[in-house]
Write a structure and sequence with these properties.
- By secondary structure, the protein is an alpha+beta fold.
- The chain contains 2 helices and 20 strands.
- It has 2 domains: 3-81 and 224-259, no CATH class; 86-220, no CATH class.
- The chain has a 3-stranded antiparallel beta sheet with strand order 8-7-11, with no helix packed on it.
- Helix 1 packs antiparallel against helix 2.
């Protein structure tokens, strides 16, 4: 069977995967804290017919070789951790990170998950939790008699109580940073998990050691650029069509040979 058919097949698979990534980006265009993905490709092994630099005579050599490629494959997807737009909500438990870092939440499996989605609220015990009920780490508990809750840009959580207008500090939110955030493993629910590629988390107070600041009453939106993704979708469709055309053309050539030999 012609090698061109298999090359075209790898191209179709690659563009199918790219469209899946683009579709996921568009589907999460309104997901708070979502970071868009991009897909990476690399060419497959080459069949070397003539090696570049090969001797053509005792004193001459080939200036270039003759190699036939065998196609393309998908090697990775990467999350692009660019800052999303900060949207004001006026909800006292909504938090946005301006700059670098991740909120830490306690996953039911006992591991720490990392997220840029700051849609927090409190549960029946007054604990600050995300939309799935996972507790923010370090654990912050809001007393039932708290009249106001103030969260500073450095993560300091303070309240006022009846009869006392002075702010009382009850805890501090800490953020985690990673040497290679692209290496974090997305598991859904707006959560990322630590891997060997990401490195160990460096935990610290917001605003220190390069970590971003926290802003109360705001949320970070998705960093998906819808127009860019639509352009990528058109480009992917055209590439898919070209690979389909290559397969169809090779099929016609083989059909011609079968009918004329």
């Amino acid at each position: 069977m012609s090698q061109a058919l298999w090359v075209g097949k790898t191209g179709l698979e690659a563009q199918h995967n790219r469209l899946s990534v683009i579709s996921n980006n568009l589907a999460n265009a309104s997901t708070n804290g979502f970071k868009r993905d991009r897909i990476l490709f690399e060419d497959l092994l080459y069949q070397n017919i003539r090696q570049a630099g090969g001797q053509t005579s005792q004193n001459t050599e080939l200036p270039s070789g003759f190699s036939l490629g065998t196609g393309v494959k998908t090697v990775a997807t990467q999350k692009l951790h660019e800052q999303g737009n900060v949207l004001q909500t006026q909800n006292k438990y909504d938090l946005a990170i301006q700059g670098y870092g991740f909120f830490q939440v306690l996953h039911p499996n006992g591991e720490i998950g990392y997220t840029r989605n700051g849609e927090f609220s409190i549960n029946g015990d007054g604990e600050v939790v995300n939309s799935s009920g996972y507790r923010l780490q370090p654990n912050i508990v809001i007393p039932p008699d708290a009249m106001t809750v103030s969260i500073g840009t450095d993560g300091t959580v303070a309240i006022t109580t009846p009869g006392d207008s002075a702010l009382t500090q009850i805890g501090q939110i800490q953020l985690a940073s990673f040497q290679n955030p692209t290496g974090l493993n997305p598991i859904g629910q707006n959560l990322l998990m630590e891997t060997a590629a990401s490195g160990a988390p460096q935990v610290g107070a917001p605003g220190q050691n390069g970590i971003g600041t926290v802003h109360q009453g705001a949320l970070e939106g998705s960093n998906v650029n819808v127009v860019e993704e639509l352009v990528n979708m058109i480009e992917t469709q055209r590439a898919y069509e070209m690979n389909s055309k290559a397969i169809a053309t090779m099929d016609q050539m083989l059909q011609y040979l079968n009918n004329n030999t």
